[in-house]
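Hey team,

Filing this mostly as a record. A colleague (T.K.) asked me to run one chain through the structure pipeline before their review meeting, and I want the input and output archived in the tracker in case anyone asks later how it was produced. No errors, nothing strange. Just documentation.

Input sequence:
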Amino acid sequence: MPPQALFEAAKLAHRNLRLIVRQPRTGGLVVVVFRQGEPTMVFSPGDGRSIGELLLAAGVLDRDAVEHLVAERAQGPVSLQRFLLERTTLSYVDVQRFLDFQARSRLLDALTWDDGFFSIEEYDNGDETSYDLALPSLDSLVTRARARASALPDLLARLPAGLPDTLVRRRRGAARPLDGWEREVFGVLETPLLLPQVVARLLVDDDVVLGAVTRMTERRQLVLAPRVALAPSVSPPLEPEPGGLALIRDFLVALRGPAAGDGALAVWVVVVAASAADATRFVALMGGEQEFMRAPESSGSSVGIAFRTVRLGKNARLCLLAVRPDALSRGALGGILARCEGLVMLRTGKDPEEAERLGALADRVLESGSGWQPLLLGVDVGAGLRAWDDRPHAVLGLGDPTDHDGAWLARRLLEGLEAAISGRRSRST
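Output structure:
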């Protein structure tokens, strides 16, 4: 079913639902929460459009303030909307504008997907159902999504670097344009900005911003320049290999039965570590088809997650998400994890405090799963295996992962998860 039909069905049901749509070709994932048929929250982890990242890019909050809010919110289950109103100087209108833009942008992505998987379920838990989004009609969103999808590839091809790494500034002495959107874009460029920062300051669709930028660049009113990428170095994308396809098929058959080995195959794995940097670095080492996710600002650090899709066969993908559980709400975590096959607990040292924090993060993930029962794989990075508590169903030792390429790491991870199937079964008997 196309995403448009899924959204229409959810609206017509007039019930509290959670719709999860995944596109294995790109690793895209969108979670939509409905209250009585109306969307109230849209999640898409790792797309650079978390509320914290948008506020940071828009210049409303600085990084220290965002990191402080993330840490403070992790202390208890508080509505994001209420939390921002109580802990910042943002007005209700400002908070609503950012939530509406975030939801709209994510829906524009999902409405153009032509393949993938979905699940839909009753959803009455969590503060996400208490929000009210001001969105256009579904027909308007579909029309806009198609126009954006048609225009965006050509616009992106004109940039000197990827969208997050392209800096735009006014050319000295340039006249202010008269066109509406061009005038708005020109107006926010009092200082040079990265393109995602321009989008966040205006809260308009990225293709509209890029269209205005490219036209003014051609008229020599603006200058585009690449910035030096600060993301960690990663392996190149893997070429599909017959052994990888067979490994994914064998794993899914062992987990779910013979029917699971048919059609497009995707294994989704969530990675947590005591240090978010360790989790994102491990996922980045897998190579894959999507860039390391980070906030669009000069330091290159991240308040989000890393997200990679590794192609192991013509129709087989290994999708990895390095999640910061303490930076996500229960509803967001539950939506992300609802159809993931495994949770990897990554450990890099012998410090008891690391083990304690890792266990607390894993518990937060599991508590958010709403009955989700993943395979739990402990992964030791370093000299050798160390003692674990009773959480993991299996433990994998990797030594130094930088000694190996992404294909080797992906195979070891799948083998470890297959061992976790046996470990979980032996505990249940």
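Quick notes for T.K.: Residues 157 and 163 are 10 Å apart (CA to CA). The longest strand covers residues 265-273.
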